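@channel sequence for tomorrow's demo:
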Amino acid sequence: MMEEDFSNVGTPKLGRPNEGGDACSAGRVLRASWSVCSASLEISALVSSRYGMPQMDEKLKVLVAEDDETLQEVLAATLSHDVTIASDGEECLELLRTQRFDLLLLDIMLPRVSGVTLLRMVKDEYPELGVVAMTGFADTIRQQILAMGVDAFVAKPYGPEEIRAAVQQAAAKRHKPTQEP
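structure tokens (generated this afternoon):
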């Protein structure tokens, strides 16, 4: 089988306009992301096999704790799972108390209850829950967050394929294969 070359597929970065020198408007970033999303879907199997991640045929129940409405929409559209959105830390805690989730995508800089505080609580109260940490301050807190036991870490700005890979990585860590008797 001939391996296809996807090196010409761009990776738009998501985030707020004009942060980090990005002159794109949020609308242009979203439109670019949607076109890359379709290309990413085509290469997800290639990426998964290249990085040794299993294909996820089953839908996960994912809680996304993110206060940026644009990123909420992009994450919900990017993930092919059952996604619930929490806009702040208190809403995230309430949803965790009332529903069961397989995975938490956690923005570290949340209002009302910080992502770091929330991560400590989640690790204590829901140790089986997979966690993907997301932050725009990766350089300053990456080691602290990784030491707290997250399953995957994504620095903002990120592209759709980075989020999908992090979700697969976290799901693979949490997947416990059945043992034969």
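heads up for whoever presents: The beta strands are 61-65, 82-86, 103-107, 130-135, 152-155.
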